[in-house]
Amino acid sequence: xxxxxxxxxxxxxxxxxxxxxxxxxxxSVAPIPDVINLPEIISECTAQLKRPASFDxxxxxxxxxxxxGNQLFYTVGTYTVTWTYTxxxxxxxxxxxxxTVLPLTAPVITTSKVPLFCKxxxxxxxxxxxxGSLYPVTYSGFQWxxxxxxxxxxxxxAKTSGTYSLTINTVDGCLATTTQNVIVxxxxxxxxxxITNGSTTVCEGTSVILKSSSAVNNKWKGGSTLDSLIVTTSGTYSxxxxxxxxxxxxxxxKIVVKPLTATITIxxxxxxxxxxxxSVLLISNSPTGNTWIGGSPFSVNNNDTLKIxxxxxxxxxxxxxxxxxxxxxxxIKITVKPKPAKPTLQPMGKVCLDKNNQLATVPLPLGxxxxxxxxxxxxxxASIFGPASFVPYFANLVGGLGVITYTIKDTAxxxxxxxxxxxxxxxxxxxxxxxxENSLTVSTSIYPNPANNVLNIDITKANFNQLNTTIVDVLxxxxxxxxxxxxxxxxxxxxxxxxxAKGIYFIRLxxxxxTFTQKIIIQ
Length: 523
What we know:
Layout: E1 14-16, E2 19-21, E3 41-44, E4 47-48, E5 53-56, E6 61-64, E7 73-74, E8 77-86, E9 92-102, E10 108-111, E11 116-118, E12 123-128, E13 139-146, E14 149-151, E15 155-158, E16 162-170, E17 175-185, E18 194-196, E19 201-203, E20 208-212, E21 218-220, E22 228-231, E23 235-237, E24 239-243, E25 246-249, E26 253-258, E27 264-266, E28 273-274, E29 279-284, E30 290-294, E31 299-301, E32 305-309, E33 314-320, E34 328-336, E35 344-345, E36 350-352, E37 362-363, E38 367-368, E39 373-375, E40 379-380, E41 384-385, H1 391-394, E42 400-409, E43 416-426, E44 444-447, E45 454-459, E46 466-473, E47 478-485, E48 491-496, E49 503-511, E50 514-522
Parallel strand pairs: 3-9, 11-17, 19-26, 28-34, 36-43
Antiparallel strand pairs: 1-2, 4-7, 5-6, 8-9, 10-12, 12-15, 13-14, 13-16, 16-17, 18-20, 20-22, 21-24, 23-26, 24-25, 27-29, 29-32, 30-31, 30-33, 33-34, 35-38, 37-41, 39-42, 40-41, 42-43, 44-45, 45-48, 46-47, 46-49, 49-50
């Protein structure tokens, strides 16, 4: 604060009782405000001014400035306020101050989701109270209105379409309003239907027009959004109608376009050169009027596909007579590559369980030629038989069976061949590991092999009390078991194999200390 400036002062000093005071006899200096440049005042809703101060040098005390009409309260608008400072000697000075009062900021409404939803749904609208506002105000209340209804809760639940208004009030009498539009969409669309302009089966070169029952919001399989679709290729077509409330899809409409010329494609890998035993799917380009001929002796198939299991190189003929043109035919040759010679696999024998029912680990049997791969439950590839994961499967069986398969692959053709053998899991106390002698071999006959519907078992020297018969697949899964009493006059049993899938199995006969194992084929 600057107290003394250049002036002409004549003072008279009077000393009274040891005390002194100063009295100005002449004061002609205008007062200087404490703040040379008053800052602009910016507020929201209202402004309440505080008087700036100056200092009376002569009287030695501060004093405040004044404004015309003593107006210290201002509402929304822009003002230039003139402050006047008059000291005790009547000297005056003035300065201006800019005052800007902004309108009350409109309230902010937050929504719990997009304000576009379906009938039966709702949305929550909430007044977002300002936090850390630049020009803070004190609110005295708020009110939501929709139509003729009013609410005074901070949040409301909107279930119908309309404009929801929120008005807030301040203690200074200001108010501000904001709105939120809420749209309740229509209900979910009905399931559309597809109407055709004629037959759904046509010849190549013509078309079928499909029309949706909905005029809008269509999307056909393939991407078209029109209400109609022109179809020139076979297939099953559907249309989906969607709006903001969901979507519905029609039932498929099957369109058959019959070709003028027969062609064959190969399913699966698409290769016409395969290994023995591979499955090959031949597909006609015509859904109707097909006649397949192939094999030796010739076999006829009238479907649009022909599934074959390759055994030898053959040529297959397809004739198409579907009514769209003269009968046409085409051929395809399926070449079968040679299979490598069947490998050999030494007998595995028997593996014992210890007193804790833990499976001993033993080396895998030797397969020839070298370089093949082992598979089967309990096989740790290329090393041993008998990991812990194998135990739960056989621990509850006395004389349980497993199958080990040894496979070789011809690197030139990619074809494989394999050999399989049993391994017996023995949990008896006197178990000893070794090769199991098939004592029933000389007296047992199992036929026919391959089998179709039945499998016969004949034992000429049936000198046992009972016989346990088990059939397992190449993965070691038990698919058949039975227990029969035997007589000394021979034994005959017939097993129904109609429900067994085609493939390779192992049958095991167990009678006392004697066993017999044989590979069988179901075809």
